[in-house]
Amino acid sequence: MIVFNVPPFTGKEMEYISQAVENQKICGDGEFTKKCNEWIEKRTGTGKCLLTTSCTHGLELAVLLSGIGPGDEVIMPAYTFVSTADAFVLRGATPVFVDIRPDTMNIDEKKIEAAITERTKAIAPVHYAGVGCEMDTIMEIANRHHLMVIEDAAQGIMSTYKGQALGTFGDFGAFSFHETKNYSMGEGGALLIRDQKYVEEAEILREKGTNRSKFFRGQIDKYTWVNYGSSYLPSDMNAAYLYAQLEMADEINEHRLALWDQYYEELLPLKERGILELPTVPEGCVHNAHMFYIKAKDLEERTELISYLKENGILAVFHYIPLHTAPAGRQFGRFHGEDVYTTKESERLCRLPMFYKLTSEEVSYITGKIREFYHL
User: Fold this and answer.
1) 3-state class (DSSP) for residue 104
2) Is residue 357 annotated as part of the catalytic site, yes or no?
3) CA 257 vs CA 137, 148, 181, 262: distances in Å
4) Active-site residue identified among 181, 222, 310, 344
5) What is the pTM of this model?
6) Dihedral angle, C-alpha 282, 285, 286, 289, nearest 10 °
7) Given 191, 213, 246, which residue is the final one in a domain?
8) Which residues span the domain enclosing 322?
């Protein structure tokens, strides 16, 4: 069976975890946590990076720092993981969903402005599949209407839009290091902060509402409870696992891109015959091969294709159920405008296996079975 995902593993993870244990500092903000933060800051150019226990927690921190609360509204796509909305709903805000673009599956930047009301406080773009949203337009709208921008870049590490790293355009960004992502610490994430004025407050919120970070830097002689907060720090053992992969980030990225290109080339004849659709990467976007997906004709055909692949030892999956159609989405949010593409495109999309240890031979087997399904 060719599984859908295998968590990345480079070979140094256990060595670094042992080092973390030997350092007798396995809680948060140890040596490897700091190394990961510094690596991300250097590679993305963000003002500050704080490793978190998940991308979900990174988003929650961003919402807390933004001061968003009851009665506020946030514009986002409905085609996203629940964490994008949960982070705002937990603070009493209302997700306002707008339609997506059918080419990238990202939020349709042309639908954002019409959804703005006097209660709108932020825009939350989601960079699906590591392909950047139209950030120039989104930032222009946000600046003109004095809105915060919180980027859900869970899938976007190593990707850029017009040369700038995803997650660094808005006031805040969040990465994911879940086991399904390009680089993993099992469960984990990161908060990216553009403006230094938020850093001290972010450290306090992340450290259970205490100024413990300043204490460890020797800036104060004791720490105490100074604000509300929670525990958003990952274990340094988790960070050690991640750092082994960040050291090989370019190699992992290049291998995934090669597999992505192979998928595209071998499935191109099906696209050229109008049988299925392949991913679109707009000009100015550099993606990270987070996933490779195809779009079947409709839900029925996709279901049959997934079943056929499974019968042939290939695990392919579909992705999000649009949030506005879910029970919680109907309870906590609303859809602005017409759902032209969100549901229709989500029902057609099929994700193919994509992970660091996937081989070229396995990709050829998968594409061969897809062509076989379509009698080509």
Assistant:
1) coil
2) no
3) 27, 33, 14, 9
4) 181
5) 0.96
6) -50
7) 246
8) 249-373
**Domain identity same for 163 and 305:** no
User: With helix as H, strand as E and coil as C, how does 288-334 read?
Assistant: CCCCEEEECCCHHHHHHHHHHHHHCCECCECCCCCHHHCHHHHHHCE
Q: Which residue reads 């007798």 in tokens?
A: 24
Q: Which two three-digit tokens encode residue 329?
A: 């989405």
Q: Under 8 Å CB-to-CB from 361, ≥6 apart: which residues?
A: none
Same domain? For 83 and 208 the reply is yes
Separation CA 103–CA 37 (nearest Å): 33
Nearest Cα neighbor of 37 from 202, 181, 160, 170 is: 202
CB atoms under 10 Å from CB of 154, counted, come to: 30
Placement of tokens 């992969």 in the chain: 245
Considering 246, 278, 303, which residue would you say is the last residue of a domain? 246
Q: Tell me the torsion sign for CA atoms 29, 32, 38, 42.
A: negative
CATH number of the domain residue 161 falls in: 3.40.640.10
6 lies in some domain: no
Beta strands in 86-199 (DSSP E): 94-98, 120-123, 148-152, 160-161, 164-165, 172-176, 189-193
pLDDT in tens, the chain (376 residues): 999 999 999 999 999 999 999 988 888 899 999 999 999 999 999 999 999 999 999 999 999 999 999 999 999 999 999 999 999 999 999 999 999 999 999 999 999 999 999 999 999 999 999 999 999 999 999 999 999 999 999 999 999 999 999 999 999 999 999 999 999 999 999 999 999 999 999 999 999 999 888 877 788 888 899 999 999 999 999 999 999 999 999 999 999 999 999 999 999 999 999 999 999 999 999 999 999 999 999 999 999 999 999 999 999 999 899 999 999 999 999 999 999 999 999 999 999 999 999 999 999 999 999 999 999 8
Neighbours of 74 (CB within 10 A): 28
Token pair 């929650």 is found at 60
151/58 Cα distance (integer angstroms): 10
Structurally, the chain folds into a number of domains equal to 2
